[in-house]
Amino acid sequence: MVGYMQIIRYQFLQHGDKRGQLVALEELRDIPFVIKRVYYMYDTIENMRRGCHSHKNLEQILICVCGSCKVLLDDGIEKETVLLDKPYEGLYIASDMWREMYDFTAGSVLMVLASEYYNEDDYIRDYSEFRKNIAEKMYKTNEEIL
Ligand code: T46
């Protein structure tokens, strides 16, 4: 829902034994959508911020499989910061949520599972446009309720 901040974290099952740990992720079981794309970022330069955009129609789960990073989530009204530092933990990000990833530790790898194929038209990269879009959607929702 637009303008409703909710932090949704997933704790994945760890198949640990004396050799170490293993996490398995299956679509529509461990992940709440059909996975159309997987990408990951690594060798991120110190003090670099990534993201800084929202999506019109995309669900994603972010997993910092190595090291840690922080994610700023902004629904247009509230902001929350989430630390990702466990390879068995995922952060769900719905569409209409501004996101910024930062404070990547050296050697960190941030993996993302996405519900859609890559589509540049799905991005809103301008913060004022993002706020305007959220305001319009909230106005429309309020009109429907009244
Ligand atoms: C998001 C955050 C969490 C592709 O060709 N295919 C892809 O699937 C992606 C994600 C990117 N690219 C190309 C487009 C750019 O030339 O890779 C380059 C870097 O992408 P971008 O600047 O969008 O990366 P981030 O880290 O700012 O954002 C990414 C995702 O794009 C975005 O959807 O939510 O990670």
Report on the architecture of this protein.
With 146 residues, the chain is mainly β. The protein has 1 helix and 10 strands. The protein has one helix spanning 127-145; strands at residues 8-11, 37-41, 50-55, 60-66, 69-74, 79-84, 89-93, 98-102, 109-114, 123-124. The strands form 2 sheets. The protein has a 5-stranded antiparallel β-sheet, with no helix packed on it. The chain has a 5-stranded antiparallel β-sheet with strand order 6-5-8-3-10. The longest helix has 19 residues, at 127-145. The model has no long low-confidence stretch (mean pLDDT 95). The structure holds dTDP-4-keto-6-deoxyglucose. DTDP-4-keto-6-deoxyglucose (T46) binds next to strand 2 and strand 3.
Q: Can you tell me the number of structural domains?
A: 1
Largest sheet: 5 strands, antiparallel
CATH class categorisation: Mainly Beta
- The percent of residues in helical segments reads 10-25%
The geometry reads as: globular
Bound ligands, named by name, code or SMILES: dTDP-4-keto-6-deoxyglucose
| Secondary-structure element series | EEEEEEEEEEH
Strands of the largest sheet, in order across it? 1-7-4-9-2
User: What's the CATH architecture?
Assistant: Sandwich
Give Rg in angstroms: 16 Å
What's the rounded overall pLDDT mean? 95
Class of secondary structure makeup: mainly beta
In total, the number of strands is 10
CATH H-level superfamily: Jelly Rolls
Spans of at least 5 consecutive residues with low confidence: none
- Here the CATH topology equals Jelly Rolls
